[in-house]
Each structure stands twice: as C-alpha cells, then as structure tokens.
Amino acid sequence: MSSTGRRNRRKPVRKLNHQMRGKLVGLFGVVLLALVCLLARITYINATSGSKYTRQVLTQAQQSYENNIIPAKRGNIYDRNGNLLATSNKVYNVILDCKTVNSDVEYVEPTIRALTTVLGLDEQDIRSRLTDSDTKNSQYQILKKELSMDEKKAFEDYITVTEDSTLSESEKAEREKVKGVWFEEDYLRTYPFNDLACDTIGFTLSRDVADVGIESYYNSTLMGTDGRQYGYVSSNSNVEQTIIEPTDGQNVVLSLDVGVQQIVEKYVNGFKKRMGAKNIGVIVEDPNTGEILAMDGGDRYDLNEPRDMSDVYSEEEIKAMNDAETVDALNAMWGNFCVTDAYEPGSVVKPIVMAGALEKGAISDTDTLDCDGGESFGANGDTYIKCAVWPNAHGTQTLREVIANSCNDGMMQIAAKMGAEQFIKSQSLFNFGTRTGIDLPNEGTGIIHTLDTMGETELACSAFGQGYTCTMLQEINAMCSVINGGYYYQPHLATEIQDNNGNTVRTIEPVLLKQTISSDISADIRSYMEASVLEGTSAHSKVQGYSSGGKTGTAEKLPRGNGKYLVSFIGFAPVDEPQVVIYVVIDEPNAEEQADSKYPQYIAQGILSELLPYLNIEPDEAEDGVIPETELWEGFDGVLEDVSGSNVDEAGNLVDAEGNLIDMEGNRIDEKGYLLNDDGEHILNDNGEYVMSENLEALEEEGGDTAVQDSGNSMSEDSVSNPDAPEPPENDEDPIIGNDMESEGLTNEEAGLE
Fold it and tell me: CA 395, CA 387: separation in Å to the nearest integer?
C-alpha cells in the first residue's frame, strides 16, 4: 500500500460505552442536586433572615442621612415691656456629599459651577474636598454656615427645572447633573438692639455655648433640647423614618427696661465724646424690689459681632496684637465693670456707715460732731488724716451737715465711736465683702478688713470709703436698703420664665434677704442725703421739679499720690417714697484734675432728667403744675444722640436687612401684621384666609435730644483721702469665681429671717 493511501486512512470514531454513559448521568445528577440544594438554602435564608441582611445593607447605605440632629431653637430674651433683646432665626448650613458627586464624572463640574455661581463659594476649596483622600468619599462636608432662607431658595431655584423653563436643553441638562448638595437646618442668634445693654445680655459663642451675661447665667433654660431624625427598616424591609422633635428653649423676661437703658447710654456716650474716662459704670435699680432697670459697664460691642474690637481699638492696634493679647483684649471688652470689678468706693459709703452707727446705737440722731480739720492717729500722733477743708474746719455739725458737707473728720469720729468690731459687723450687715447673688456670672466680692487687719487708721479711713474695696452692685444694693425703709433685697434681672409659646412657666418674685436698719433711721438718712443735694456736694445732680437725695464720692487710687482718682455719685428720687436709685462711677476721667465729683453728677442729672418722666414719677416739687427746666452740663451740648441701636424703622417697627417688616420672631409681615412668604406673598391657611402673626409687639423709639446748658451752680468740694490712707487688705480668693449657675435665690426662711 502506498504512502498516500496510508495518509488518507480515517481514524476510527470512539463510541461511549454503557459504563461511560452511566458515569455522565451520575455526574449530571450530582450537579443538579447541588443546584437544588443551593436554591433551597437561598430560599430558606431569604425566608428566615432576609430582612436582617436587607436591613444591614440599607442601613449602611443610608446611615449618613438617617441620623441627623434637629436643632432646638434657643429661647428669646425680653425686657420688662416685651421688647425683644435676643432671638434665634433659622439659617442653613451647606452640606456637600463628595461620594455622590464623585460617583459620576459628569456630576463634578455642574455641581462646582452651581456652588460657586449661586452661593459664591470658593472653587478651589470645593475641588480640594472632592479630590483629597481624606474627604473625597465623605458624605458630610460643611461648605458654609448660616445661609439665609433667601440664599437657600436661590440655590434650589437654580437646580429646579420646571416644564415652562426658558433654559436651553444644554442648560437644563447641566443643572439636572448638580448632585450631592443639601441644606442642614440651624439657628443663628441675633440681637435686634446690637450693642444696647451688651454687658448685661451677653452673647452665645455657638448655638448652645455662652460665657457672658444673661445668656451665660440662664444658658440651661434658654438652650432647649435637640431632636433627632433617623431611619430604620420595618418588618417588611421598608425603610422608614423616626423623628424625635426638638424641645425649644424657654424664654427669659428681664427687669431691664430698654427705654431706661437707652437714656443711660445716651448720656454715658455724651460724656465719653466730650471728656472720656478709663471706664464708666452706671446702674439704675428699683429700691423696692431689687430689680435692675439698666446697667452699663465697660466697653460696648455689637452682640451680633462680639469679636469686632474696632469700636475700642484702632486698626493698627488690633493688627499689632498677638493671640494672647487679642484674648486679653476681648475678655476686657466683654467684662462688666458693674459686676466684676472691686475698687475703693470713697465717700458714697458715708450714709451707709452712718446708718449702721445709728442702728448699732453708737450715735443718735441728735448728736453733733466737731470738725477741726482732721484727726491724729498713732502713739505720738504721727499720722494725721485731713478733712477736705483743711487747713480750715467745718466746726460743730449735726449728722445732716456731716453728710451734706461730706466731712471726713465727722465720719472718722463716728467710726471711732463704733469700734472695729461693730464697724465690721455693720459692713457685713450691708453685704460688703460678700456677693449679692445677682443672676449674672463672675460677680466680684470686694475685700473688707478683719479684726486682725483693722487698726485705728484702717478704721478711720474705712469710714469714708478707703482702705477696703467693694463692687458697684454691693454699694447700690446697700444704699437701696438704707433709703427704702431698711429692706435688703437680692438684686436680680430675670422676672419671668416662659415656654416657647409665651406662657408663663415661673414668676421670679423679689427676694427679701434681711432688714438692715429701722424705717425711722432710713427716713433720717434720706433727709441727710436730700441736704447734700440742696446745699452740699451733690448740688449738680438736682433735677428741677423732683425732690432727691444724693452722695458724692472721690477715692484716691493706688499707689497714693499718683493723681489717679475714681469719682462717683449715688442718688435717689423722690425723697419720701424713693422709686429709683442711680449709681454712677467714673474711673479716671480724662481731666487734668480727676478728683472732681461733679463729673458723675453731670451724667446722673442728665439721666434723671429724662428717666423720671419716662417712669411716670410725679414731680413732687412742681409749683402750680409748672416744672422749671433743668439746666444740664454744657459739655453735653452738641454731642447727645438718641440711642436706638435696633433694626427698626421710623415708626418703631422691626425690619430685616432689606427693610422688610418682620415680627418679633423674624417672620415677614405686611403693614397689618399678616404673614408673608419669602416672595412677599401672603401666607394662606386651609380656608384660604390670610394668617395673622402672633408676635407683633413693636419696639418704641425714644424721644429727641434734651437741650443742655451750663448749670453755673456752685458746690462744696467732696472729701479727698489723705495720701497716708492704708491699702485694702489682700485676699487670695479669686474675686470673679462663683454665681455662674442659675439660682432660684434665697427665701427669707432660708436666709434665717423671720
């Protein structure tokens, strides 16, 4: 057979024999059985645990969105007349879901353009967050905080494509690709009166953190409780949401009167413009309740911009500050001189010292005292403390004349009659050296002598307010008890706590702590202080038509002999039934001769000239219904300006930044008080009727300037301490730690009073 024939021979085809067929059938059966078992297992798992695994997957996919905090609205702060001092308006935070934006490359550029075009956000910042390894997969990146409703709406309008849109198809397509942007609700604390009563009201550092003023002291009452929104999977594997609603904070109503505060700041501002001082403090108090009507102490700042120091320091000074200096400057600006600072008070304490001596029986109302120009102390008479008129003398004086003439010699004799032990007990009776318990944080204590530190010179100088320290609150509260019949009330600001609907939750009544002196002694002291106004050192405080009492003070600061003085005035009106007490302190007035008690009287007189009519206090010295014009300090001429400071229009209604009428909660309204939406259209109820705002209390503007003229009155000089006056005792206690928490105050029973 040829080779060709061999190559063309076909190979035999192998056929499956019976044995091989059996093996293949068996293998197929095994595979089929395995598939059946697998399907059965899947069916079993789905039936028994399917919801569990579904829940896990869905929860993981949505956990970033289904566990959100719903912020509570911080409570409002009102003055005694319902004027809104602090409120919280809803704002929005812009949140970027980087993971969603990066899920499709076509989403990136449209989203960036929308954020930069509409909201003006930084393009580089957005791109960095989308590409950085730490943030590119994040589903929660805050791009901007505190957007207004209008800004939020503008963005939403940009990305919403309606059927009747005039946009081109390419523009529609781009806006539909804006993804991963959402808005988180929050609240922004706002203060309609800006810097008015900033020392008292305080501000929040964040939504629920406050370190200053009423905002700090009543923080737990104001802040409320946040709600929460989160998702879960039901038994049928459907994702559902649960919402725990927030509990809004409660409102705090203060004894503060916006009108009184505006009058106070008007005259303080006028004095600062004309003369100025290192510091000026003013407190106005109701002596019959302990309620604070106005308080102004320290540098003013806008509560809406509390870190802005431009009103206190120049741009160059601010730039030159390092971090530590900036912090110190801010803390100094935020401080409240009326509450925290202790100083030697000077002669304003003389009526209090005399009242204590009368109560202790060391002197009587018929006593006379002989002023020969001063008193000698020490074994050899080496220390001589002069009266203000030395080398002259006041001669023989009644108690009335000692106060009217502000005689240091007479007061030193009174202190000597009391002795150190009785004198210290009297100081403690009037709460010197002890916090008053006012509902403001960081109250100082002041320092008084003990029996171990009080020698004869310390006792003598303490009689006219040197050698120990006190706060403005201690002085005015002690004086209130001296002239109101002897009743010492705890000073306070909060008078009422309301729920978020304005319903009264708690009324804070005045707390009587003790009786310091008898009503007869109180009446005597009032007449002595009236003499100081009519014929003594307090003549420049007189407001025509009203009876009043007063006392001046001039304290030489340490180190003695440096020409630095703190001058003050404390007064009340009317004499028989005092309705208001005012205390003015000027620390180092910008004058060549600082030791002049006329300066605080100028401020007090100006304030009282408007305050008394404002409070509807009847002029008890008006003749035939005619009230003579009060001539104010000529330095006020041309510098007095009304203090409104609020976002109000000429009619006294609240307005927003665009001039739109708003209610007390910041909602847009029309002229009649009906609610409007952001487009200025009326909001309708289910019946198609206009909805009236429930918060329509309007703010009132104060009246015009008061004309000022030179008084031209003469006066006796206030007593000035001797350079040998001892320094106050030292105290290791931090003077501003304490009373940082809300307090219910003490009842008479708790104070040990019957």
Answer: 11
pLDDT per position as a tens digit, 641-668: 888 655 545 454 666 656 678 776 667 8
- Nearest 5°: phi and psi at 96? -110, 125
CA distance 655 to 461: 55
Sort strands 84-96 and 181-190 into parallel, antiparallel or unpaired: antiparallel
Statement: residue 44 has pLDDT above 80:
no
Residue 316 has phi, psi (to 5 degrees) of -65, -40
Q: Is the peptide bond before 287 cis (omega within 30 degrees of 0)?
A: no
Percent of the chain with pLDDT over 70: 82
Let me know: does 558 contact 540? Beta carbons within 8 Å: no
Choosing from 659, 679, 698, the residue where a domain stops is 698
Containing H/E element for 474? helix 472-483
Domain-ending residue, one of 147, 167, 187: 187
Residue at token pair 């207004």:
148
Report how far residue 364's alpha carbon sits from residue 368's, in angstroms, rounded to the nearest whole number: 9
Reported as a single tens digit per residue, the pLDDT across 455-499 is 999 999 999 999 999 999 999 999 999 999 999 999 999 999 999
Query: What amino acid is encoded at 33 in this protein?
Result: L
| 677 inside domain | yes
Instruction: Evaluate whether residue 399 is within a structural domain.
Output: no
For 491-501, letters b (16+ CB in 10 Å) and e give bbbbbbbbebe
Q: Which domain holds residue 173?
A: 89-187
Q: What radius of gyration, in Å, describes the C-alpha atoms of the chain?
A: 38
List, in sequence order, every residue forming a beta bridge with 77; answer none if it has no partner. 86, 252
Tally of domains within the chain = 2
Domain presence at residue 109: yes
Residue at token pair 């009108």: 259
Task: With respect to residue 105, please indicate whether it lies within any of the assigned structural domains.
Answer: yes
| Angle, CA 104 vertex, CA 103 and CA 108 arms, to 5° | 100
Q: Output the six-digit token pair for 571.
A: 């007064």
* Tens digit of each residue's pLDDT (9 = 90 or more) over 141-176: 999 988 888 899 999 999 998 888 888 889 889 999
Which pair of tokens denotes residue 497?
């706590």
Q: Please provide residue 532's backbone torsions phi and psi, each rounded to the nearest 5 degrees.
A: -65, -35
Smallest Cα–Cα separation from 82: which of 667, 742, 663, 743? 663
Give the mean pLDDT of 69-92.
Answer: 92
